[in-house]
Design a protein that fits this description.
The protein is mainly α. It has 35 helices and 21 strands. Helix 19 packs across helix 20 and helix 31 (867-879) runs antiparallel to helix 32 (885-899). This is E3 UFM1-protein ligase 1.
């Protein structure tokens, strides 16, 4: 027991002192024996790694008579260098981690030493006298409002009736009084709370002297309402004597243990025992860890070299340490190289660190803390104060961080760490002084401009910031400090136009329009007006202006032109408006202006425009009357010298010859097939030409055209020319003699205008002369058909075509095409010739038989017809070369309507009559036929009509198709 007292006297009065080897957590694992000590280790410090249990012992009363004991020599402690010899037994840091940490710590110290040199003390700008007065006024106003609010609250508080609430439960009261001092208490042990009844309490002998009697002192008491409430609130603890601490023994030396291993939690007495315990621990460490991992009681990660284990929590701690030593920013890949574990585990623990610690985040694979961002903002602020502006794009390249991230972080610290203004649209940060300098420069430059100037040129010439230029310029213009406007938006072609130039410009434009009554767009463009049309419309929106391509004309010129045109029309003369038009007008603008004037006076029908001259219709009629005598003389001479002007007697003789020559080539082929003459009967009587047509193989010869040519090609070659009255030069010579005081240009245009009406008049005169000469012919009455007979003939052919159209619909498309072409060449051609012959008999006393009209003669007749009936008949003639009977019927109906021919709609009686006539015609041809092929052809047509009750007209090549169609209808 005396040994225990000595042990307590040496070591229990103060906290345990341990070496720096034990300044680690108990839960850490031992590291490699070959790693060196890192610079992070500090000198000898106090730690709470292990503390001896405090023994509660009764204090001994010291006697004055006791002699002082001799001091027991203390055990010699080992130095730090001696304890370093057992480095392989302590918890060490791995060599790779220590080396990286040491280098990083050195770099951090260098950076911290350089930071104060770059950092400048930010000083607030001193307030001016006006700002101080405004701030004082604002402060006085706030104080008055606060005082009024306080007085109002005090008044409300006084109005409230304070009702004391009586408390019924147990209470604890605090008393503090001033009373006379009393003699000191006797040396006795008083247990107030009843917590320790065994521990005596004695007043030490070195207590201060008692003050004299009669002195006052302060006393404080705490009273409870009753004992029951005190005991229920503070129950006395059970009176159990505490266990005396047991002196631990070192398992190696069996001596009293002075230390405890923080890793194995085993007490030991000296360094030799500590070494032996660690060696035994390390021998079994791998087996223990493997067993714990198998039982899933421990989670460890292997290093890349496979020599060490590391726990995930240790990875997180090392990540935090490296992040701190690197200044708050480190790449995850660099962490993987330092910690020497797989990158997956490093990324996982880095994400957990970023989630667990506020202000820590992962940006582009880098861990960044709030401290780093604060330091970066301070550096940006230093650079901003030096340069006046900072580009976020450049900061992004410098710090290797995204521009959006920098914009977000810097904007959050504007006004706190960064003294400036941010333009997020352009990604720039400016200081107020820089903005003021730019504003003053812009104000001076644009105030001195006196003519329109490109803003882009000023930016390069004076070094202005284009990001601030337009916003500051708009601010100065809106405030009236700079007089002018920016035209063209904020683009490269933006132009600044000063007000002084605009005023001079407006004066010139108004003066020119007032004196000349027009404005030329090109002149306004030379003055610097980019959009002359919009400028004029905006400037003179109340005036009546006519906008042309290159100029705008005032109402004064329009009134002059309208008055001149009306005068010319009323006086039945002409007028040249060139003298009244502005000289800058182009030909198109002049024509547009004259047309507008003609529409304004509503003289479209009573006048005609010839270039820049306006001629009345009555004047043109008088000019046409000048050629009447010449026209009659030339017509009589033309009829006598060349009677074939329209359709003459020679044409009547030539028509049968042309018909015979056109059918001569067909006769040569038909002779080989022994075609009978009876097979080409007339269709107008109700039948049709049903001669069998057999296709033979064609032989191609070089430089030889096909035997059958289109009617349209032949007609184009034989198109007649109309008789011409006089040429333009001849008409111009007549006008020069008869019309006086007219410019030559107007006479030339007038001559060109009179060519066509004179030609039409001449044709009418020639026709009149010709008819008057042929009306006395004795054979005219014989050749004339009555209108009623021709009308009936046309209706009969029209009914045959409609009946034949129904018959061909029983066959396939290819057969329908061949049959339609055959019908168009035969029956439809006869119908067309009949209609043309009807008009010829009515107007020109032409042919007796329309079936003798060949395509050449038909085109010649159509060329002489009037325009109003020639167009539909030309379409009808063109449809004969087509492939559709429906198209031909539509053309027939349109031509009949234009020519005044009445077509009767078919009815059942008429259809039965047509079928009967057609059948009778086929029967007569069959009786007279001797050729076997022709007999088969006619027989097939009769059988088809008998079983389908439809007419059919088909070439010989379609006989097999007709027989195939009749197989299903004929009995076996």
């Amino acid at each position: 027991e005396s040994g225990d007292d000595e042990y307590h006297g040496d070591h229990s009065d103060t906290e345990d002192e341990v070496d720096s080897d034990f300044d680690l957590d108990e839960g850490d694992e031992p590291d490699s024996e070959q790693e060196e000590e890192t610079p992070r280790r500090r000198s000898r410090i106090l730690t709470k790694a292990y503390r001896e249990p405090v023994k509660v012992m009764k204090p001994r009363v010291k006697h004055l008579s006791d002699e002082p004991k001799t001091e027991k020599p203390k055990a010699e402690k080992r130095s730090v260098h001696e304890l370093q010899e057992i480095g392989e037994m302590r918890k060490s840091v791995r060599k790779s981690t220590s080396e990286h940490t040491r280098k990083t710590f050195e770099r951090l110290q260098e950076r911290q030493q350089e930071a104060p040199r770059r950092r400048r003390v930010h000083r607030d700008k001193p307030l001016s006298q006006e700002e101080l007065l405004r701030e004082a006024e604002h402060t006085a106003q706030s104080n008055l409002e606060s005082l009024e609010n306080y007085e109002r609250l005090e008044a409300d508080k006084k109005k409230q009736v304070q009702k004391k609430r009586r408390f019924e439960g147990p209470t604890i009261r605090y008393h503090s009084i001033l009373m006379m001092s009393e003699p000191p208490l006797k040396d006795e042990n008083v247990d107030v709370e009843g917590l320790d009844q065994d521990t005596p309490f004695s007043v030490p002998s070195s207590c201060p002297a008692v003050p004299g009697v009669g002195a006052l002192c302060s006393r404080t008491f705490i009273t409870f309402s009753d004992d029951d409430a005190f005991e229920s609130a503070f129950p006395p603890p059970a009176c159990v004597s505490p266990d005396l601490p047991v002196q631990e023994v070192c398992p190696v030396t069996h001596n009293p243990a002075l230390y405890r291993d923080p890793v194995t939690d085993i007490p030991y007495a000296d360094a030799r025992a500590f070494r032996i315990i660690r060696e035994a621990y390390q021998r079994n460490c791998i087996e223990i860890i493997t067993k714990l991992v198998e039982e899933k009681k421990l989670d460890v990660v292997h290093t890349l070299d496979g020599k060490e284990f590391i726990t995930p929590s240790q990875i997180s701690r090392e990540i935090r340490d490296e992040l701190y030593t690197h200044g708050g920013r480190i790449n995850v890949v660099d962490l993987q190289k330092i910690i020497n574990v797989d990158l997956v585990h490093v990324e996982s623990r880095a994400n957990e660190v970023a989630k667990s610690e506020k202000g820590t985040r992962i940006i582009l694979g880098q861990l960044i803390t709030e401290h780093y961002l604060e330091q970066m903002c301070e550096e940006v602020n230093d650079k901003l104060q030096e340069a006046g502006q900072v580009n976020i794009t450049e900061l992004s390249k410098t710090h290797q961080l995204p521009a959006d991230f920098l914009t977000q972080e810097l904007s959050a610290r504007i006004g706190r760490l960064v003294d400036g203004h941010m333009d997020q649209f352009n990604g720039l940060i400016f200081t107020q002084n820089f903005i003021n300098r730019q504003k003053a420069k812009i104000r001076g430059i644009f105030s001195s401009i006196t003519r329109p100037t490109l803003v882009n040129n000023l930016i390069g010439q004076y070094g202005l910031q284009d990001n601030l230029l337009y916003s500051l310029l708009d601010e100065l213009v809106n405030s009236g400090r700079v007089l002018g406007s920016v035209v063209g938006g904020r683009q490269d072609k933006a132009v600044f136009v000063p007000d002084v130039y605009c005023r001079a410009q407006n004066v010139w434009v108004e003066s020119f329009l007032t004196h000349n009554s027009y404005l030329e767009f090109e002149s306004l463009s030379r003055l610097g007006i980019p959009d002359p049309v919009s400028y004029i419309k905006k400037r003179f929106k109340d005036r009546k202006l006519l906008f042309l391509q290159s100029v705008c004309v005032d109402a004064t010129i329009l009134d002059q032109l309208e008055a001149s045109v009306e005068e010319a029309i009323n006086s039945e003369t002409w007028i040249d408006l060139q003298l009244l038009l502005p000289s800058c007008l182009s030909l198109d603008d002049s024509a547009t202006l004259i047309s507008h004037v003609i529409h304004s006076v509503r003289a479209q029908s009573s006048s005609r425009v010839l270039g820049t001259a306006v001629v009345s219709e009555k004047f043109i009629s008088s000019c046409l009357a000048l050629f009447d005598d010449i026209m009659h003389q030339k017509a009589q001479a033309e009829v006598k010298s060349d009677p074939v002007l329209l359709i003459t007697e020679d044409d009547m003789k030539m028509a049968p010859t042309l018909a015979e020559s056109s059918s001569a080539k067909r006769d040569k082929r038909e002779e080989r097939r022994k075609k009978a003459s009876e097979g080409s009967g007339s269709v107008r009587a109700g039948g049709g030409g049903n001669a069998r047509e057999v296709r033979i193989r064609k032989t191609k010869k070089k430089n030889k055209r096909e035997e059958e040519s289109d009617d349209e090609t032949a007609a184009a070659q034989s198109k007649p020319t109309e008789p011409v009255f006089l040429s333009v030069q001849e008409i111009l010579k007549v006008l020069e003699k008869r019309v006086c005081d007219c410019p030559m240009e107007t006479l030339e245009l007038l001559a060109q205008e009179l060519v066509r009406p004179l030609s039409r008049m001449y044709q009418e005169v020639v026709r009149t002369v010709f008819l008057s000469s042929t009306s006395t012919s004795p054979s005219a009455g014989k050749r004339r058909h009555t209108a009623k007979e021709l009308q009936e003939e046309i209706n009969t052919l029209y009914a045959n075509v409609r009946a034949l159209e129904k018959g061909i619909k029983y066959f396939a498309d290819d057969d329908q095409l061949h049959m339609a072409k055959h019908i168009l060449k035969s029956v439809c051609s006869d119908l067309t010739n009949a209609m043309i012959g009807f008009l010829s008999d009515d107007q020109r006393n032409f042919l007796d038989t329309p079936s003798a009209i060949t395509p050449e003669v038909r085109m010649k007749i159509l060329a002489k017809l009037p325009d109003e009936i020639k167009t539909p008949l030309m379409k009808l003639n063109t449809s004969l070369n087509g492939r559709s009977i429906e198209e031909f019927l539509c053309s027939v109906e349109a031509a009949a309507e234009e020519c005044g021919i009445m077509l009767k709609k078919g009815d059942k009686k008429k259809e039965k009559l047509v079928l009967s006539v057609h059948k009778q015609s086929l029967m007569e041809q069959l009786e007279a036929a001797s050729d076997e092929a022709l007999v088969l052809h006619l027989t097939v047509l009769l059988l088809f009509q008998q079983h389908t009750h439809c007419m059919l007209l088909a070439p010989g090549r379609c006989v097999s198709s007709i027989i195939y169609t009749l197989q299903s209808k004929l009995p076996q």
